[in-house]
Amino acid sequence: MAQHFKPQRVALAYSGGLDTSCIIPWLVETYGCEVIAVVADVGQGARELEGIEEKALRSGATKCVVRDLRPVFLRDFVFPMAITGAVYEGRYLLGTSIARPIIAQAQVEAALEERCDALSHGCTGKGNDQVRFESAFAALAPHLPVIAPWRLWNLRSREQMLDYLKVRSIPCAASAEKIYSRDANIWHISHEGGDLEDPWKAPPEDVWMLTTDPRRAPESGAEVTISFRGGFPTALDGVPMDGVSLLDGLNRLGGAHGVGRIDLVENRLVGMKSRGAYETPGGTILMEALRGLEQLCYDRDTLQWRQRLALEFARLVYEGTWFTPLREVLWAGAREAAKVLDGDVRVRLYKGTATIAGRRSPNSLYSQDFATFGEDEVYDQTHAEGFIRLFALPARIRALRDATALAQTQSPRAAKEKATR
């Protein structure tokens, strides 16, 4: 977005951190516009949200709109993603990625309500989030121009940004000594920067905020039973709960037992690698439970399809292409398959691990009568011979063909013909 563009009212995705605290006065000074700060509560916690409206107004915003998105975030974004089994590069449970489409959606809705003529965000030109936000904007409000200050202004360091605010007497809790860059929501918290930029160094203990060091977790461990309906979690230990309460409970329990720590060097969408530490205690437990329920309820072909789907769905979430026909089609298939995912799964938590201890479902395809190693009257083992012969038929045909060809090359006639050439 060129700086000669002169918007009248800009809707800014506002977090209250250093970047967006600078962006509000920069937008006002650069364009002479009004700024509507849009705050999305996706479960980042009371500390980050405390006094955020006053902070936005003191920074120069005309208005601050705060939206509690937690229930919708879980119902329409997080839990569907979990049902698909989406995990990026085998480890990352997509905590930051999955929050971006709903934040962008809320920002667009607020922009339209407030009659804004432009959108803005605080994403840097190196990260994935700029793509995620602007892809969502393109799908939801293609007529609204996007202003990305990090691609326009001359502020290049934390110190410069702090000086920028100091000169304008704008308060900010940030400091030049800040070590890590963090992003939090009800699903996870991510940590980048500081010592984490050296992939040879182990994450320092001061990185972690949600989880106990697994070495210091209780020796007794714990168990939790999660109930599901159509793949969506509905209760903990038999107590019905809404999604927010349920995940809050899993986060506390998983965190106490050191569950959900990930140290990952990942491939960013923009091409570079980055190293991050992630904590997803409740999400790790939930994902483990869902996979346990699938083991009972999905037939082989459906399970293998779901596993392939997980890779594609993770890519779509990571790349920010949530509001696309492909994502909708993939979720429609996953939702249909998940209709059988009713039941309970017991998960054992012990020193950083979450493992299935038991599962049951009214839709289970598991039959002890068929699977038993003991005597049974429902399975005639002699039937296996015919099945194996048919199953191995391609290999048998190929072997017979090769044997015939070899015999022909070694026959006396073939040898005589070869000698006369």
Structure explained in plain terms:
This protein is an alpha/beta fold and 421 residues long. It has 2 domains: 9-179, Rossmann fold; 182-370, Argininosuccinate synthetase, chain A, domain 2 (Alpha-Beta Complex), CATH 3.90.1260. Helices cover 44% and strands 18% of the residues. It has 15 helices and 14 strands. It has helices at residues 18-31, 46-49, 52-58, 70-84, 95-113, 129-140, 158-167, 243-256, 281-297, 300-319, 325-337, 368-371, 383-391, 393-410, 412-420; strands at residues 9-13, 34-41, 63-68, 118-120, 146-147, 181-184, 189-192, 222-229, 232-236, 239-240, 261-267, 273-279, 343-350, 353-360. The protein has a 5-stranded parallel β-sheet, with helices on both faces. Strands 10-9-8-13-14 form a 5-stranded antiparallel β-sheet. α1 (18-31) links the parallel β1 and β2 (34-41). α5 crosses α6 (129-140). The longest helix has 20 residues, at 300-319. It is globular, with a radius of gyration of 28 Å. It starts with 8 loop residues before the first strand and ends with a helix.
